[in-house]
Amino acid sequence: MASFNEWILTLTVFTPLAAAIVVLFLPRSNERLIKLWSIAISIIPLALTIYMLVNYYTGHIPNGGGMQYEVKLSWIPQLNSFYHLGADGLSVPLLFLTALLSTLGLYYSSFTIKKRVKEFFFLFLLLEMGMMGVFVALDFVLFYVFWEIGLVPMYFLIGIWGQAKDRPRYAAIKFFIYTLVGSVAMLLAILAVYFATNTFDIMEAVRLQPFAGNLTIASLVFWGFMLAFMIKVPSFPFHTWLPDAHTAAPTAGSVILAGVLLKLGAYGIIRIVLPMLPQAFSHWAIPIVILGVIGIVYGAFVCIAQTDLKRLIAYSSVSHMGYVMLGLGAAAAGISKMAEPGMTDSMAMAINGATLQMFNHGLITGGLFFLVGVIYERSHTRELSMFGGLSAKTPAYYGIFMVVAFASLGLPGLAGFWAEFFTFRGAFDIVTVWAAIGVIGIVATAGYILYRIIQSLFLGEYDPHKVDHWTDMKDGQEKHEPGDMVSFEKLVMWPLVILIIILGVFPTPLVDFFNQAAESIINAL
Amino acid sequence: MTNLIYLIPFLPLLAFALITLFANKNKKLSGLIAIAAIASSWIISWIVFYQAWTDHHFHEHPISLPLISIPTGASELTLGFTVDSLTAVMLFMVPFVCLMIFIYAWGYMGIGKPAAAEGGHGGGRGWPAGPENVDPLASRFFAYISLFACGMLGLVLADNLVLLFVFWEIMGLCSYLLISFWFARKYDDPKRIMPKQAGFKAFITTRIGDAIMFSGMMLLYAAAAVLTNGQAGLTFSALFQPEVLAGLQSVAVPVFGTLATLIAILIFWGAIGKSAQFPLHVWLPDAMEGPTPVSALIHAATMVSAGVYLIIRMYPLMIAGATPTLTFIGVIGAFTALFAAIIAVSQTDIKRVLAFSTISQLGFMFAALGIGAYVAATFHLITHAFFKAMLFLSSGSVIHGMEHGEHHAHEHGHHEVAGFDPNDMRYMGGLRKKMPGTFIAFLVGGLALSGFPLITAGFWSKDEILAEAYYRLSHGDAIGVLPVFAFFALVIAAFFTAFYTWRQITMTFMGKPRTESAASASESSLPMVAPLLILAVFTLLLGFVGVHEDFPTLGPLLGGNPFHHFIGGLAETLGIEAATIPFSWLPVLFSTVLALGGIGLGWWVYGRAGRGWQTHDQLDPLEAGMRKVGLGGLYNAMRRKFYFDELYNIIFVRFSLWLSRAAAWFDRTVIDGVVNGVGRFGAWLAHISSRFDSRFIDGIVNGLGSLANKAGGALRLVQTGQGQTYLLVALLTVLLLLALFAVQVAGIGVVG
After folding, report:
1. Whole-model pTM above 0.80?
2. Is A159 part of the contact surface with chain B (CB cutoff 8 Å)?
3. Which residue among B7, B107, B238, B242 sits deepest, i.e. has the most Cβ atoms within 10 Å of its Cβ?
4. Alpha carbon distances (Å) from A18 to A123, A350, A520
5. Measuring CA to CA, which residue among B40, B249, B269, B289 is closest to residue B168?
6. Whether the Cβ atoms of residue A67 and residue A491 lie closer than 8 Å to each other
C-alpha cells in the first residue's frame, strides 16, 4: 500500500486532466458519450478522496496527522523546484469538497448545458485538476502553476456559457484580470521567498522562516501573497469581481466558483502566509480582522438591497468569507499573545472556525447556486419580485431550499453554525471589539435570507401573471405552473443536504481534521 | 432507564423526519406519528420526573448523559444532557402540555374532514381552511410542531449553554415557520400585519436578542477557558464553580464594572428577546397570526418561557453579576409586567389580549428573579404554562366556534356585519351557552390568571412572588429600590390582570350574542375540548404543591410545600439563597384583594346588566370613561401599544433598508467604479506606451499574439478587442515587473 499512498495524490489530481484530454478526442456529435465519460471518470478522484478521508482519519489523526501521501520528485532542477505533493488535515477535506462539487457540477451540467458540450466538459475537468492541484502542491512553482491553471477554464466558462444579458465577457475579463493582478503580486512574493531561502519548497520555506526580523521586507512579501489571496477570497474591498462573475457564470460554474475557487485564497493564507510569515501577519492582523468584519457586515447589508437572486447569493459569499478573514486575522493577532493562558486554544478555534467556514460555505453556497439554477431553468428569470408563493407550488424545492438557506443563515443544528461559532469564539477572545461588531452580521444575515430570499420566493400568494411560462424540466415544454424539482436536481442536492445536516448535528469528525492541522500550525509558531 | 432520556427529544425529531420524508401526503398518518412520538416522550418524561420527585436527595446527584465532544485546540468542547431538579419539573410540564396541544391540533387542523375544493386561493395552501375542511398543509403543521417539541425538550435537557443555544434557535426557526404557516394569507385591511410579515418580525426581533446573548456566551466561554485552563467549555456545572464565578467577578470592565456583570446582562438580552420583554416585546402580539395551537404551545407555554428558564438555569451567573444585573432583570421584568398589562386592557382581539397577558406574566417571573425569588419564579413558570396554554386553546376553540357560526349564518342567508373578524371580542358575546366546555375551561384559566384565591394555581404562584417582593421590601434588603419598585409595579399589574381577564370573559361569554355568528356558534369537537378540560384540572390542582408550609391548615395538609423543597434543594447545591421566607398574612391579603378587586371592577364596568358591551360597534365603556375625564390620548396610546411598532419601524426597519441601499450603491458606484477606472487606465497606459516604444512592445505583442493563435480556437471564443487588450496588458505587466523585481531582489541578496 505504501506505493499506492505515494501515488494517490497524483492520481487524484491528474485523472481529471487525463479525462479532459480524452474528451478532446471524443466525437463532438456524441454528446451523450462526452457527458457519461466525464461524469464517470470524475467519480475516480471522488472515490480516492473518500479513501483518503477514511485512511487519514483512522490512520493519521490519532497519531498527530501531519503531511501524508507525500511524493517528491525532481522537476525543474535548474530552479531547484520539485514535484512535491502532500496532504494534511486541511487539504484532505477540501480535496473531498472539490471532487464532490465537481462530480455534482458535471452531473448537473449534463442536463442543462446545451451548447458547446465538448468544450464545457473539457474545461470543467481541467478546472477540477487545477483546484485539486492547489490543495496538494507543496512547491511554490507547482502551486503557482496550478493556481493559474484554475484561472483559464473559469474565464471561458463565464465568457462562453454566460447569459448574454449578464455581460459575460465583461465579467470574465474582470475576473481574469483581477485575479491575474493578484497572481503577479504572488509571483513576486514567491520570488522574494526563493531568493531569501533558495528553495521553492513550501514546507522548507516555512521551516526557514524567511525575513524573520526584517519587518519591512516581510511586510512587502506578506502583502504580495495577501493581495493574491484576498482577491481570490474575496475580501473587502477586492470583491466586486465576484457578483459579476457569479451572475454571468453557468450554474455549475457558479457552484465551483463559490464552492472551491474562493477557498483557494483562504487555503493559501493558512498554508503559506500564516506559518511562513507569522511576524508580518501578526503585525498586520488587525487590518485583516477589520477587513473581515467589514466584509461580514457590509456584505450582508448589500445583500438586503439586491433584487437578483443570484447576485444576492454572490454577495452573501462576500459576507460569509468575511468570517474566514476574521478567523484567520484573529488567529494571527493572537501570535503576539501566545503566552497568555488559553490563547493557543483560542487561536486554534479561530482557525478551525475559518476552515470550517471554508468547507461549509462550499457545501451551502454551492447548494444555493444549484437551487438558483433550478428556478432559473424553469422561469428564465432571477428577479426576486417575479416569484412568490412557491411554498405551496413546489414543496420539495421549498423544503430543500429551506435547509440550505437556514444553514447559510447559521442556524444551529446545520453546518454553518459551527463555523460561525468557533470563528467568533476565537475572535471574541483575541479581538473582542471587532468580533462584537461582526455580530451585527448575524442579524443582517437573517434579514436578507428571510426577508429577501424566503419571503420573496416562497411566501405570499402565487401570482400566475408574473411568470407566465415555466419550462417543465421533464419534457422541456412550456407550462403555466411551476413544476417541482425533478430527480436529477434532487440527486444533486441530496448529498449536500445530508452533509449539511450531519455536519450540523455532529461536526466532530470534520473538526478533527481541521483541528489537527490548526494545532500543527500553532505548535510550529 | 437513564438511556431512555435520549429518546425524549429524539422521538419528536424522528417524527419530524418521518412526516417530512414519507408521510407528507397523508395528513392522518402525519398527525398520528406526531402524537405517538410526543406521547412516548411524555411517558418517559413523567417516569423520569416521578423518580426525581420521590428521591429526596435527587438534587445531590443529577443524571448526566454525554452526547458529543468537539476538539478545540488542545482542549475539547463537550456537550451532553442532564436531568436535575429544574429539568425534572420542566419535563413534567413541557411534554404534557405538548401532548395536549398536539391532540387539540388534530381537531383544530380538521384532520378527518374533507379537503376543500380545488381553486380559490392556490388550492387553499397557505390559507386557513374553513371550519368544514382539513387544512391542506396539515402534514407540514405536524412536522413543524414535532420539530418544535424536539427543540424545547432538548433545551431543558441541555447540560451546557451551547446546546441550549442550539435548541433555542431551532425553536426560533419553528416559531418563524409556524407564525408564517398561513404564508399566503392576506387581509382586506392593508394595515393589518400578514402572517409572513409577523413571522419575519418575530425571527428578526428575537435574533437581535440572540446575537447579544451570543456575544455574552462567547465572552463567557473564553473567560471560563482562561480560568479553568480550557477545561470548562460551556457546561453549566463547570461554569458555576465558585472559583470561576469569582474569577469573572475579579475582571474589571468599563461601564459594567465586572466581567460577570457584563456577561450576565448580555445573556439576559437573549431572554428579553425570547420572552418578549420590553423593549423587544413587539413581536409576540403579532405572532398571534399563527394557528392557535402554535400560540398556545410556543407563544405561551413553552418557547417564550424558555427565556425565563435560561435565567433560572444561569442564575448563579446572574448572582455573580451582582446588584446591577439583578436590578436590570428585576426592573425590566416589573416594568414589562405593568406595561403589557396596561396595553392588554385596551385590546379587542381575543388572542392579542392573551399575548400581552403572557408578556406581562413573563415579566412577573423576571421581576421575581430580579429580587432573588428563584423558587417562586420557577413555580410561576410551571403554573402559568398550564393555565395560559389552556386559555389560548380555549380562545382557539372560541374562534373556531365563531367561524362555524359565520359559516352557519352564511348558509342561512345572513351576511355578517362589515369588518367582522372571528378573533375580535366585540363581535362575540353570550358564548357560554353555545360553548359550555370551552367556557368552563376559559373561566378556570381566567380565574387562575387573575389569581382567584385558594382554588387556582395562579393564585399560589403569583402570591409567592408578591410575598417575596413584600418580604424584601419590608426587610430593607441591600438590593435597594428594586423591591419597592417591583412590589408596587407587580401589585398594580396584578390588579390590571384581574381586570382585563374579567373584561375578556365578559365580552366573550357573557351577555347576549352581538352578531349572527356568535348566535350561531357551536362547541368545538372532542379532540379540542377534551385537552382543555384536562388542563383545567391541572390548573386547579397544581398550585397545591407550592403552598407555603406555614399557611394555616392548607400548608401542613399539602405536604409542606414540596415544590419549594424540590427546587430549593437544587438552589442550595448551586449556592443560591432560596430559604423559605416566613409566612405573612399581608401579601396574601393583598393578592386576594387585588384579584377580587380587579374581577369586581371588570364586572362593574363590563358585566352589569344594561351596561358594558351591548352592540358590536359601541365604544368600549373604559374608553368612554377615559375620554370623559380627558384621558382619551392615553387610551389611544394604549390601544396603539404605545406606538412602539411605529417607532421601531422608523429607527430599525427603514434605517436598515436605507443603509442596505446605500451600501449597494457604494459598492456599485465607488468600489466598482475604482476597479473599472483602474482597468481603463491600464488599457490607456498600454496604448500610450505602445506608441512610445513600439519596437519593444510590438515584439512581445506579436509574439504573444502568434502564441495565442497557436493555442487554438479556445481564445478566439471570447474575441473582443477590449478583452485581448486587457489580457496583453496584464501579461506584459507580469513580465516587466518580474524582471524588474528579480534584478532588485538579486541585488539585495548580493549585498546581504
Report:
1. yes
2. yes
3. B107
4. 12, 38, 34
5. B269
6. no
Give the pLDDT mean for A75-99: 90
The amino acid at residue B702 is N
Q: Which of A79-83, A303-307, B723-727 has the lowest mean pLDDT?
A: B723-727
Query: For residues A123 and B561, what is the distance between their CA atoms, to the nearest angstrom?
Result: 76
Q: At B349, is the secondary structure helix, strand, or coil?
A: strand
Grid cell, residue B283, equals: 413581536
Strand partners, B76: B71
User: CA of A501: which chain B residue's CA is closest?
Assistant: B17
The Cα of A345 is separated from the nearest Cα of chain B by a number of Å equal to 5
Amino acid at B627: R
Cβ-proximal residues to A331 (8 Å cutoff; 6+ apart), any chain:
A274, A347, A348, A350, A351, A354, A426, A430, A522
Determine the Cα angle at B369 with ends B366 and B374, to 5°. 135
- Which ipTM did the prediction report? 0.94
- What span, in angstroms and rounded, lies between the C-alpha atoms of B379 and B381? 5
Predicted local confidence at residue B145, as pLDDT: 94
B49-81 per-position pLDDT tens digit: 999 998 888 888 889 999 999 999 889 999 999
DSSP B5-24: GGHHHHHHHHHHHHHHHTST
User: Does the distance separating the beta carbons of B659 and A301 come in below 8 Å?
Assistant: yes
3-class DSSP state of B291 = coil
Query: What is the C-alpha separation between A244 and A234, in angstroms, rounded?
Result: 13
Q: Which residues of B touch A455 (CB under 8 A)?
A: 196, 200
Give the A:B interface size as CB pairs under 8 Å: 226
Q: What digits encode the pLDDT tens for the residues A365-400?
A: 999 999 999 999 999 899 999 998 899 889 999 999
Whole-number pLDDT of residue B407: 84
Check CB contact of A428 with chain B, cutoff 8 Å: yes
| Peptide linkage before B62 cis (omega within 30 of 0) | no
In the structure grid, which three cell numbers stand for residue B519, read together? 348566535
Tell me the C-alpha to C-alpha distance, in Å, between residue B696 and each of A400, B683, B684, B735, B740. Answer: 58, 17, 17, 13, 16
Structural contact between residues A318 and A299, judged by C-beta atoms closer than 8 angstroms: yes
Q: Find, in chain A, the residue whose alpha carbon is nearest to that of B181.
A: A459
Q: Residue A258's Cα: distance from chain center in Å? A: 5
pLDDT, mean over chain A: 92
Q: Does A484 touch chain B (CB under 8 A)?
A: no
Interatomic CA distance for residues A234 and B663, integer angstroms: 17
Residue-averaged pLDDT of chain B: 86
CA distances from B560 to B543, B567, B573 (A): 13, 14, 21
Q: Are B173 and A432 a contacting pair at CB < 8 A?
A: no
Residue A81 · residue A200 · CB < 8 Å = yes
Q: Which three cell numbers stand for residue B614?
A: 351591548
Burial class (CB in 10 A: 0-12, 13-18, 19+), B555: middle
Distance from CA of A427 to the nearest CA of B (A): 9
**Residue B252 belongs to what H/E stretch?**
strand B252-253
Residue A32: name the closest of A40, A44, A21 by CA. Answer: A40
Sign of torsion, CA B739 B741 B745 B750? positive
pLDDT digits (tens, 9 = 90+) for A15-25: 999 999 999 89
- Give strand pairing partners of A76: A81
Cβ atoms < 10 Å from Cβ of B17:
16
